[in-house]
Amino acid sequence: MTNKHKEKYKALLHLLKSFNKVAIAFSGGVDSTFLVAAAREALGENVVAYTVNSPYIPDWEITEAIEWAKQTGVEHEIIKTKIPDNIINNPLNRCYLCKKQIFTLLKSKAKKRNIKYLLEGTNKDDEGDYRPGMKALEELEVISPLREVGLTKAEIRQLSKGLGLPTWDKPAYACLLTRIPYDITITPEELIRIEKGEGYLFQLGFEGARLRSHGNLARIELQQEQFELMNDKNKKETIVKKLKAAGYQFICIDLEGYRMGGRWGNGVMGERKNGEMEKWSGDTH
């Protein structure tokens, strides 16, 4: 841990102490886990972590969040929600609409407990990425302490490692809605299929890979260092077998590899069966 890291962490603790008591949107990812840990150090028992359990959040991520919260003793509440009606067709502004509804709910929960400040884990790097949900956070006056003190993702990982957090090297993740093209109706069955498909990939060593679902075609985005792993004949055969059993007819590897929504603007374009173009819903949070 460098002096620069220590100074930023000190600034973060100072900022958190000024809030006295906080509620934190806690997904179990790298940023929110680090934020909860720092808040616990700064505020002790005056921290409540809220985890949203929705059909588009993988079960394994909820389980990891619950287990870590139990280990640390932080007060933790699971809030079960359905897919909001206004995003059921995966509109272009899905991320904004979803964030607006979820964080309105979290603010209401916090207010009932006389908690004035709701925090979340956006970091400095996110300013340069395509994240339409940030507009909703600003409108609702949700606080992003990591961003405010200028902590980058790499710095958060290093500080997390120094704190002994198990998430320090956890791959970045995004909700399952980002695996489906815009303007396509979302169904629980499709979300389950994608979650299971990515689970198969993770088990075979492709952590952080994405399964983009185009109807009967599964497009797999790998991390750049994972392409060599795909040369293993047994792995390829297992992936094909599992994904075909899940209902996909065609399985392909995207040669560009994994890429976040910030590289796509409003979405990458691909062809539909009818020859029209579809906007792709990339990772935006």
Low-confidence stretches: 261-278
Determine the N-to-C terminus distance: 27 Å
Which structural category do the helix and sheet elements fall into? alpha/beta
What is the radius of gyration? Answer: 19 Å
Overall pLDDT: 89
DSSP helical segment count? 9
Helix content: 25-40%
Model description:
With 285 residues, this protein is α/β, with parallel strands linked by helices. It folds into two domains: 160 residues, Rossmann fold; 104 residues, Alpha-Beta Plaits, CATH 3.30.70. The protein has nine helices and nine strands. The strands form three sheets. Strands 3-2-1-4 form a four-stranded parallel β-sheet, with helices on both faces. A hairpin with a 5-residue loop joins strand 8 and strand 9. The longest helix is centred in the middle third of the chain and has 19 residues. The protein is globular.
Label this structure with key terms.
2 domains; globular; 9 helices; single chain; 4-stranded parallel beta sheet; about 280 residues; Alpha-Beta Plaits; about 40% helix; Rossmann fold; alpha/beta; 3-stranded mixed beta sheet
